[in-house]
Give the backbone structure.
Amino acid sequence: MTVSQWDATVLTLFPQMFPGPLASSLAGKSLNQGVWTLKTLDIRDFASDKHRTVDDTPLGGGVGMVLKPDVVAAALAHVGDVPGPRIYLTPRGRVLDQQTVRDLAEQPGAVFLCGRYEGVDQRVIDETDMMEISIGDYILSGGEPAAMIVMDAVVRLLPGVMGKEEGHRDESFETGLLEHAQYTQPRVWQGIEAPAVLASGHHQKIAEWRLAEAKRETRERRVDLWEQYLQTQQTQKTEK
Ligand code: ADE
């Protein structure tokens, strides 16, 4: 029997959205194997009136509806003290990166709060010391797809989820660089040749080519990452 390595709990108004895409591929296989677990709670079950009201108009006016702090607090109280961070998915949060994903994968699990409408009353977010995470500078109609993206990124790092052949040592962001481009057979496709060095069988040369390409592509595609990379290299040099 597999012992679960990571337990996710999701608070949502749309529990039927889960596991959704997480039922397929690596995430789905490892979910079936019990490497990780996924529980959903319907926020509406924690409404206290007979109409099961979960939201109200924004104080100060404005469009949309805001999830009520008492309802969200009741849902969080029901979850109890399961270990791991409480994460609120919001475009106002810190933008997710691979370091945050690695940190989350070190935890025994996480509780995700998915907002809808205009968001969640900030008092409950602050009072329960939630991490606020955004998956990028664009607006989704709710936090659910964002929670799925965080879970997907975390789950693939759990021990036993990815085989050796899918190793994640050199891939984009693990080294601070974008990954080099990849090629497969046929070596000539529609008259276009794959880089000759890759078929040379010369491991050292291949590794050098890949690193040089990773650097060139990062410099050309993502100046922000490139500058960060240079800075890290510089810091490591002065520390030596
Ligand atoms: N909810 C709506 N948009 C979002 C985003 N970009 N990231 C996380 N949660 C969200």
In short: The beta strands are 6-12, 36-42, 55-56, 66-67, 86-95, 109-114, 119-120, 131-134, 188-189, 192-193. The CA atoms of residues 62 and 177 lie 43 Å apart.
